[in-house]
Amino acid sequence: MSDARVIHPHNYGWLEKKLSTQEMDYLWKCIDNKRESHKQYLAGNNYESNVLVDEDDWFWKNTVKPLVHQYADVIGNIGEKVPINQLHPYYLQQMWVNYQKQNEFNPLHDHGGVYSFVVWMKIPTRHFEQNKNPIALRSNNPKISTFEFRYINTLGEISEFVYEMNPEIEGTMLLFPSNLMHQVNPFFDCDEDRISISGNIVVNTKELL
Question: Cα(82)–Cα(84) distance, rounded to whole angstroms?
Fold first, then answer.
């Protein structure tokens, strides 16, 4: 056997977490109390998005902030790339709920901020069943009812990581760098809404550590 070392250069991935019943109940409560439309600030081609309020910063303190610290520990602190001279804390700048109907989609885009997250609240379709649709039946890359990240590999090629949208993924949260490109592909022949929550974490330059 060769004694050559395998070198895996550093890259920025993401964290995946299954939320607890308490966390999900809290987010559904936030949705019940949703505020004004947020659509004008988003790339999504979907019929409704609304601002959510994190009362007393509960979700930030109990869920998001620990994940941000974990990301810094295991992958790297992306906030160090922000061109500022002093140390500042992170905070949850905004959070919103997305309602996506059949045929709607979210094109390839990124977010403002340092970190972003998505939580899948309700997924009414199954990827396998969705891709029986005639437009995907003979495709070698079926993408109906998926979420995907896009990034450049060491060969300069566009790579992808795909999450198939099934009910079992409900309650899953991803925390990722805000400028990591991603997209949401449409689903068809289902009258129920796909519901997700997104948010952005930024550096609070008004406070010092």
Answer: 6
Q: Are 142 and 164 in contact (CB under 8 A)?
A: no
Rounded to 5 degrees, φ, ψ at 130 are -60, -35
Structure tokens at 198: 């997104």
Contact assessment for residue 201 and residue 68, using Cβ atoms and an 8 Å cutoff:
yes
DSSP state of 64: I
**Whole-prediction pTM:** 0.93
Q: Which tokens is 195 given?
A: 């519901």
Question: What is the amino acid identity at position 56?
Answer: D
Length of the chain: 209
Phi, psi of 68, rounded to the nearest 5 degrees: -60, -45
Of 175, 49, 179, nearest in space to 108 by CA: 179
For 72-90, write each residue's pLDDT tens digit: 999 999 988 887 877 789 9
Cβ atoms of 67 and 17 within 8 Å: the answer is yes
Beta bridge partners of 163: 147
19, 171 Cβ separation under 8 angstroms: yes
Residue 89 · residue 206 · CB < 8 Å: no
What's the Rg (C-alpha) of the chain?
18
